Amino acid sequence: MHSTSSRRSRRTIAAVTGSAVLALLATACTGTNDAGGNDDSASGKDVTITFWHGWSQDSEVKAIDANIAAFEKAHPNIHVKAVGNIADDKVNQSLRAGGADAPDVVSSFTTNNVGMFCSTKAFADLKPFLAKDGIDAAKTFPAAMLNYTQFEGDQCSLPLLGDAFGLYYNKAAFAKAGITSAPKTFSEFAAAATALTVPDGNGFKQLGFMPLYHGYESSTEHFLGQWGPSYFDGSGKSNLASDPKVAAMLNWQKGLVDSLGGYDKLDKYRSTFGEEFSAKNPFHTGQVAMAIDGEWRTASLAENKPDFEWATAPFPVPDDQLATYGRGYQTGTIVGIASSSKKQAAAWELVKYLTTDTDAVVSFANAIHNLPSTFDALNSPKLISDDNFKTFLDIAKNQHSGTTPPSVNGGAYIVSLQNLGYAYESGEQKDLAAGLTATAKEIDAAIAQAK
Question: How far apart are the C-alpha atoms of 120 and 410, rounded to whole Å?
Fold first, then answer.
């Protein structure tokens, strides 16, 4: 995972390119899938495996290379050829083509594509490997992380670090507005957002919170994570029009847009924001007093040092779900074994090490400021943390935290919901019930076409 500008493009591309990725995966080579060892690496034979990943920054590459070096030291007969800065479209093309140049192990930032990786058998089912080594996945990985690495019973990937979303707030602005603690419910949040907003002519000197879906990280799925919706019913049909939590979220967000000045005024102010992953981020500059963001922001703020004190807390929850406070939306990086690989035994040893070795997970998390992805690593005394980062560790451990479920056509359903959100917040779509019904039908038709 990146703590750079590529992170947001990762989330956007993950949702937008689902159908294109599926077209590639549909004809992917599907090799053997056994946990018995098909490359003689277990007997000491020298084996070289190829590992493709998306990390590209020098610090990130240095961190993953350090873990690979530690793995090779522990497994002297398994050699790893690591190739970084690989996007999913290239992965899918290579898996489709197969051959000696195809990767054996693949890491992806795109959790939305897990449903396709699993359903097309582009990635091998890891359940036999886990069973062979006596690894209980449910006791090893937090539930939300485990959920976004499997599809319809196929555990075709495992978590490799994670992200969680919470609330960042300006302590100086809070004190000036007389707010003594972070809001826990959405009614408290709305009151705080209003109290923290300082008008300036037709704009703002300071905005309490930017609720628009085009704002940084204020997406439909991140907000919905605080409600715990059911995106699909038991038969796999879209549940967006039937689950009242979805309409509740959209109405909450629209109410916040209207109360803070309306869509046009907010969108004009949004156009003044600097780049998200820079010192010109609107929270860094004080243009907004509260923001929804991931754990990586703690490192950015520590580096850029804004001229005010700041703190983190879980993002608020609906008033009638106060018992779930502490939850948050989660996503992360996944890693799997190419079904076309002829070196799956050696590939599994690398995957197992990267995802379940506590020291490996902790050292990687420390290096790139992401969340560990196992229970043991989350509780490790070697984990570097402070009160602000601990917020996100607690979100990752929270039993109510959730994610968006995998789908056979990737994140296309998230794009459909987001498009409805854009139309509803701007006033283009005035009948929410009708919009939800049409969106659910659109999602069902797209999924049916993809199968």
Answer: 12
Q: Both tokens of residue 330? A: 């989660």
Q: Are residues 176 and 319 in the same domain?
A: yes
145 and 61 together in one domain: yes
CA distance 308 to 172: 6
Contact 196, 173 (CB under 8 A): yes
pLDDT digits over 188-218, tens only? 999 999 999 999 999 999 999 999 999 999 9
CATH of the domain at 57: 3.40.190.10
Instruction: Give me the domain span that covers residue 340.
Output: 6-163+331-392
Encoded amino acid at 130, one letter: L
pLDDT at 8 over 80: no
Please report which confidence band the pLDDT of residue 13 belongs to, taking 50, 70 and 90 as the band edges.
very low
